[in-house]
């Protein structure tokens, strides 16, 4: 299957790939959406955060029906392969189709959540498909904490039912998602001059993935593997002087790559220790990350390092930091209930800065994990702060929207609608806080590899999902 841009959902998705729209860089796309509304004579609001609301009256016979919120986020996660030269702030994505799947060369595609944006635009311009009044919401900064949605105002909406297009599937819908919080830990220590050569340790070849949907897959974390290698040096009674660290970029992505520049004075022991860790990790991750690689190379560019005492303290602290699955639900089979992702470690000036993302469907678990991190930070002399918190979306047993979607899926596919509780965060929780009696369903086409350069979108599924959306809207009564 090819991507024929005469089909409007494909046309609009293709247009999105030309406009840079990473988190915090959505202004150009936000303005483009406003111009779309103007061009089509539709009422719109663009708020101070650059969220955009576009309103469309109901079609003939459905003008007085209750409105429906359609919702998607306009920002994408900007991840690329380490050897790819690409500027997400200025360059269009380089897309191609292979075996019916749309992909981008060396980068994320932005199907998360460009598919939702494209479906709304196609529907907004179509005057033939029947629907009740529409309140279409395009939010910003979803990928870094649902920030745009949390800036929305209740007065923007009259609707008490909603279709979210950021999770679910053709024959499944989400019924609950996790809440979350981002923890930032900082340690400021002076660096000292270093006169001599050193090393650069690189961890690569990991799959990475969404820190909500993939955190239970036992995938390797580049930061945890790198610190394990340094800890092996310490265990072998080698002094270590850390010079620089760069691992992970997004709090909602499991880090795939990491490098550390450091000094240590016994070349034979250094190589032997790193080889041991590389072999251990390769064996442990044989099923989940078979391409994991630890590369050690000499580095003659090191000029400043943390003292051996400070470096050991850093190594000890990062070693004991929690990462990965913390709890599984005993009520819903297979559901991750609580997790932590050691998302990034960066040197910024004389500081090391660590970011962890915490997720749980239960607020008390977020509080528990936060307390543990605060205690660890205080014991090791780090500062600890929390931000970008967002609420969970709790399961509601009764849902008229879900029943209508179930009936439609059964009719069209012969399948029962699958109900999914997810560990990722969605803006549904924010809307539930804002409009407590809101009735929500979710739908999205088949895609995979979200938040990684392997992201891809099934074009046939995209077509079917849009047709399902239009049919559902046509069947909504007053």
Quick rundown:
The protein has helices at residues 8-17, 27-39, 111-125, 147-150, 222-235, 267-284, 308-320, 363-380, 400-413, 428-434, 459-474; strands spanning 43-46, 52-56, 68-73, 95-98, 101-104, 134-139, 161-164, 172-176, 179-188, 191-193, 198-204, 209-210, 241-247, 253-254, 258-263, 293-299, 304-306, 324-328, 336-348, 351-360, 383-390, 418-421, 439-442, 447-448, 456-458.
Features:
about 475 residues, alpha+beta, 6-stranded mixed β-sheet
Detail the topology: elements first, then pairings:
Layout: H1 8-17, H2 27-39, E1 43-46, E2 52-56, E3 68-73, E4 95-98, E5 101-104, H3 111-125, E6 134-139, H4 147-150, E7 161-164, E8 172-176, E9 179-188, E10 191-193, E11 198-204, E12 209-210, H5 222-235, E13 241-247, E14 253-254, E15 258-263, H6 267-284, E16 293-299, E17 304-306, H7 308-320, E18 324-328, E19 336-348, E20 351-360, H8 363-380, E21 383-390, H9 400-413, E22 418-421, H10 428-434, E23 439-442, E24 447-448, E25 456-458, H11 459-474
Parallel strand pairs: 3-6, 3-7, 7-23, 8-22
Antiparallel strand pairs: 1-2, 2-6, 4-5, 5-25, 9-20, 9-21, 10-17, 11-15, 11-16, 12-14, 13-15, 13-19, 18-19, 19-20, 24-25
Helix pairs in contact: 1-3, 5-6, 5-7
